[in-house]
Specification:
Blueprint (H helix, E strand, L loop, with lengths): L9 H12 L6 H12 L7 H27 L1 H138 L6 H17 L12 H11 L1
Helix pairs in contact: 1-2, 2-3
Length: about 260
């Protein structure tokens, strides 16, 4: 408008301004007269050119006022959209944090998966190597089981049969031995009783013989009688006459009877 364009040429400045002119509400005659009027220096402009520049300036002012009104009217909506944008940005930050956490978990899961896959691969390799050993061990086990079954069917059965026979024979022998022992014990008891009866009869007979002698005897006769009784007692075995052994009390009894 003032003609002070500095180092730039008027044509260059007009090219920068021309896109804005298309947005102004200008009639066709004013739009066509704009370029010639603006490219002239202010001193070279006529009355018509001045009028064109003035109308163009009013059009710019009107457009600026409309835009300012639109901005003022859209301020609440702009603030609401700004709040929505702020909330959206917060949600984006939160989502990015969740995404980062999920990415970390995913990375850890992938690392664990790799370790598990490596372990699984090693286990499969060990299983392949172990199959032959397992087969040999299974065959050896089956052979041992067959041997055990054969032993139970043949050897153990034979042993049980022999044990049953031996037990029957042993039972018979034990019964016979017990019967013999009982018979021997009964015979020994009878013999002991008979021996005791004989000893008791001999003692009573000797006492009666001594009692019948009425005449007094001297000490030599008393000693002879005691010796005779001792000889009789000596001739009998201790086992046969355990209760008729010559004791000092027996000698005293004989002496008293002689006196």
């Amino acid at each position: 408008k003032s003609g002070d364009v500095g180092d730039a040429t008027p044509e260059t400045l007009y090219q920068n301004l021309e896109p804005l002119l298309l947005k102004l509400d200008l009639d066709t005659s004013l739009r066509s007269a704009t370029k010639p009027a603006l490219l002239k220096a202010p001193a070279g402009r006529g009355l018509f050119d001045g009028k064109v520049v003035e109308e163009l300036e009013k059009s710019f002012a009107t457009k600026i006022e409309d835009l300012s009104g639109n901005i003022a009217d859209g301020q609440p909506a702009s603030e609401a959209r700004a709040a929505v944008v702020t909330q959206a940005e917060a949600k984006v930050i939160e989502a990015e944090s969740v995404q980062k956490t999920a990415a970390d978990v995913l990375a850890a899961s992938r690392a664990a998966q790799k370790e598990v896959q490596a372990t699984l691969k090693a286990a499969k390799s060990n299983l392949t190597e172990y199959k032959s050993e397992y087969k040999q061990a299974t065959e050896a086990r089956d052979q041992q089981q067959e041997q055990v079954q054969t032993f139970m069917d043949v050897n153990a059965a034979s042993f049980n049969a022999l044990a049953a026979k031996v037990s029957a024979r042993k039972k018979k022998a034990m019964a016979a031995a017990a019967a013999a022992a009982r018979a021997g014990a009964a015979a020994k008891v009878a013999a002991d009783a008979e021996t005791a009866d004989k000893a008791e009869g001999a003692t009573e007979a000797g006492a009666e013989a001594m009692a019948t002698e009425a005449a007094p005897v001297d000490s030599a006769d008393t000693e002879a009688a005691a010796n005779s009784s001792a000889e009789v007692a000596t001739e009998m075995s201790v086992e046969e006459v355990p209760k008729v052994v010559a004791t000092p009390a027996a000698f005293d009894t004989a002496a008293n009877l002689g006196a």
